[in-house]
Amino acid sequence: MSQEQNRELSIPRHQFPIRLIQKFSQEYDEMLSHYPLNQKIELTEHLLQALGYISEFAKTNDEKDYKKYVTLEDELLKKYRANLNPYARQQFFQYFDFERVMVIKFLLSAEDSDVIKPGEQRLTPDEIEWFINSCQRLLYNSRHYLYLQDHGDNVPAVTLNAPVSIADEPDKGMTKARQLLAIYYFLKASLGIEGRDSSSISGIARFIHLLTGTKFTTVQNSDIYKKYLQMPNYKKDNQLITDLKFIRPYFVDLGLDSAVKMIDEEINRAINELPFGERKKYKNDQG
Length: 287
What we know:
Elements (H helix, E strand, L loop, with lengths): L2 H4 L9 H17 L4 H24 L2 H18 L4 H6 L10 H4 L5 H6 L9 H24 L27 H16 L9 H12 L10 H6 L8 H18 L2 H16 L10 H4 L1
Helix pairs in contact: 2-8, 3-4, 3-8, 9-12, 9-13, 12-13
């Protein structure tokens, strides 16, 4: 085998989806910088709708679903015309060429292309779903803050004493620590990324800052980075068991059985480390 064939890729294979969402985020931010607030909101809504069509196409591989996306892009072009150039330059459509996106977005080098195995650069169905879901979460978060900046004439008046819908209230149980724990198991189960063993822990921490909307300065100052290094054992005993039981139903709903199994194993391990007298209250849970 030649030296070139032995050469490792510049980006480890399991990091493809993470690097892709980082690239998408950079290009989205660069594109928005050219537009006023009302168009930032409209283009963000447009991308969310586009991702919905692409998500369906990825599942069905039906050209009718892809044509919905093409029609959506065509309507935007007709409306914006020359004003669409900052959007068009980012070529967001390339993200949906799951066969070649790592190459055409210049995340893999020419040397990588020479040695990568046939088909290895294509995203798997799980990676495609994870990438699309991550893009949607990023855009929903961005849209939220864009609307908070909008003082336009069409904004409805705020009634200070109006009752707040339960659906609008934040989930007080969803602490930052539980979010990190859920992200840890999602990455491990879906992409095989083990936080403490990964050489790209700083990249993962920056990605989590993006998903959670937490301001990021440096890795050294990142509380997320410090906590993630300890996952899943950032807490001990009953506190850890409580957090694991809190996030478990979300993975059951996703049908991510491998994550559920890992969470159950960690719960059992934590229970077995409790003093004997404290284990009794979990006896029924263990069945």
